[in-house]
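User: what does the whole thing look like in 3D?
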Amino acid sequence: MSSAQGRPTAIGESTKKHKVSFTGNRGLQMEEPLIFEGGRPEVSGVDLAEPEPFAMRLNGLERDTPMGLPGLSEPEAMRHYVRLSQKNYSIDAGLYPLGSCTMKHNPRLNEAMARLPGFADVHPLQPQQSVQGALELMQEVSHWLMALTGMSAVALSPKAGAHGEACGMMAIKAAIAARGEAQTRTVVLVPESAHGTNPATAALIGFTVRPVPAGPDGTVSAKTVAPLLGPEVAAIMLTNPNTCGLFESEIVEIAELVHQAGAYFYCDGANFNALVGKVRPGDLGIDAMHINLHKTFSTPHGGGGPGAGPVVLSQRLAAFAPVPFLRAQGESLQLVEDAQGTQAFGRMTAFHGQMGMFVRALSYILSHGVDGLKQACEDAVLNANYIKACLSDVMSLPFGQRPCLHEALFDDDWLKGSGITTLDFAKAMIDEGYHPMTVYFPLVVHGAMLIEPTESESLASLNLFIATLRELAFAAKNGEVERFTSAPHYAPRRRLDETGAARTPVLRWSPLQAQG
Amino acid sequence: MSTYYTKDHEYIRIEADHAIVGISDYAQAQLGDVVFVELPALGQSFGTGDQVAVVESVKAASEVYAPASGQVSAINDALEASPGLVNEAPQGAGWFFKMTLSDKSQLASLMDEAAYQAFVASLG
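Assistant: Here's the predicted 3D structure for the full assembly of 640 residues, as structure tokens:
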């Protein structure tokens, strides 16, 4: 006997082994099949009239087998997607300490502003005279991004961090080509403590990557950079604060050396949340930096809405910014779409960027004000240091007691000899209802655990998180190995076979064979 | 037959007319389950320290650097279907490629078995 989902209804060995209940559900946590497993071909949620007869113009290329659409009634289709959405974990559901990702609260005010019809319902191909308000908002966002970074120009169109990196590096490449050095300046320096996307971006744009080792304190020193510079170096890509959560304190000296060598300074701005209102990257000698609106300026990440990665540029690179860019023409604003007659390196996207993210970012900036932005930055750094201080006696710090910025980094030295790995510890956190922190990154730290609480968490929330991690740490030290190595115990799925998934991936769903 | 090691945990084993290159047991243990190995092309020439292969595990992707300069004379095709060989027998069936050495004196700058074991022990 099989249920409607094709699952056996008889109690056998397999059902006993894998299920906690007859249905496979746990309480109201539904065991949701794939939509193709639940559907029946004869069912439809809509009742459409037969189309008028028409002449087929596909010359025999029309399909002769059914498409295999699942066939669901409207309530079935709705429940399927609602149940899937309930499996999603988000910052709206709980603490999300994913280091290097700045998972912060997106204020509801942002959402209300983004849904104003004047912003939400405009079309990129509308006449520009009819969207002057939207263009003015883009100009206002540009103003704030330049003011907060101390830079001369901004390209709003890049869609996310790595896209912004590509934009900044293409501006650098264009500037080098304009100097007639395209053939000779082909190397980009990338410190080990930079974001992993940095070397990938440099390679994608056609540069050769030269790694820069980090010092024992986790940062890059000017002394290390100096001998790696030369007439073949186009740029350095530094992340500040770096992926160890540390401020690159020799950044000004490094910028001077880079400029003396005729190269440009790209800064990965993913961790800008730790600097807003405190440090202007332009003052540090940076030539290009992307800003993740979906991190620093609280717009949603990923599935919650597209990212946005505007790039700010120094005076030296401003002329090479891509189209489209905004230009005031008399009383009105105009998006310049044609690169001809300018030094713009080209364009990054079909249109002007993520309008909805610009609205949310401006809403965040204006509702916080200058003092509020500064306070958010200070709270984010304070929260990370609080976590670091409260856990440093039970977990181990790779770089000693030096204060961190927006994220606290631990290594796995404290787990040595316990038979428990960083991954096991992270999985046990799921059982406690916490999304794990970033693990095994940055690579320069063994068994890294990178925790970024952001300013969104209250003291009570931080205290519960810290108490949970302390309890887990004591359990690990007391030899409760099983609690970790077989975690998660309470999640809808137990430990996934990552090795099997990578070695023999099943990339396409196909129907289960009918069982007798 | 002697084996030498680099600080990046590649080994190079000298045989009669060629050398065999792979990653050490310590390296495979640190990487965790290996899921993919990108090997150099047959006949490819390289200098000491050049990136010649990539090894990818469930945890991370790492570059493999040439322990000495030379030319690839054979690659271990078996790794394509069974990357797990690198975990099971890193210095046996899990070898990466064979090469001809352009200058045997380069081996002097590498660590021998005893020196490498001491180096690994120092990493804690």
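In plain terms: Chain B touches chain A at residues 33, 35-36, 58-60, 83-84, 124 (CB under 8 Å). The two ends of chain B are 29 Å apart (CA to CA).
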